[in-house]
Amino acid sequence: ILLCCLLTTASYQGDYFTLSGQGNRFQPDDNAQLLSTISNVDVTASCAIYCLENTFCRTFNFDSTTHQCELYEGWFTAGNFISTNASSIAGWMEINSAMFSSYNASADQCQNSRYLSVDIASGRCKCPARTFWNGTFCLNQ
């Protein structure tokens, strides 16, 4: 049931999460990717919702024993998944080219985008700070 709610919430936003198996956590290449740690989170779906609510969040860790949720700005490709205790699970947003279809379009095409930002000087949709355009996606630097 929790996974159903997670997928429904994610689908409503146009975003989709993939969950690692139990006993895994995301370890970023750069610890500066940690956006926040939230305590007293009851379930994985709640952690995913916190990630959805933070426009910079792309990946999260949840521990059902400590009830901690860690939000990361990096895509899952900006780190590794490591084996840890059975109470840990990681989740990440699926990345696809449609998320970036407005790249270089006029600013009105990305006003409410979590993946692109408006470049004031050019009036075009560009990659957000600390990311770069690889020809298909905006990836973490």
UniProtKB/TrEMBL annotation:
Q: Name one Pfam family in it.
A: PAN_1
Official protein name in the record: Apple domain-containing protein
Q: Where is the Apple domain?
A: 35-73
Q: Tell me where on the tree of life, at the top rank, the source sits.
A: Eukaryota
Known InterPro entries for this protein?
Answer: Pan_app (IPR003609)
Tell me the Gene3D superfamilies matching this sequence: Hepatocyte Growth Factor
Query: What species was this sequence derived from?
Result: Adineta ricciae (Rotifer)
